[in-house]
């Protein structure tokens, strides 16, 4: 549980760093692509 909380904090920090460098629309496209790829991999299992 603690590790999951720490991982989420790290992802949040990374997202905020990206947000300062990239446009919100670009981040939305990237996140959508990542989630679709992850979901497809889960379906194959």
Automatic annotation (TrEMBL):
Residues 2-42 form the BHLH domain. Its main location: nucleus. GO terms for molecular function: protein dimerization activity. InterPro entries: bHLH_dom. GO terms for cellular component: nucleus. Coiled coil: none annotated. It is found in: Nucleus. Pfam families: HLH. Keywords: Nucleus, Transcription, Transcription regulation. This is BHLH domain-containing protein. It comes from Cucumis melo (Muskmelon).
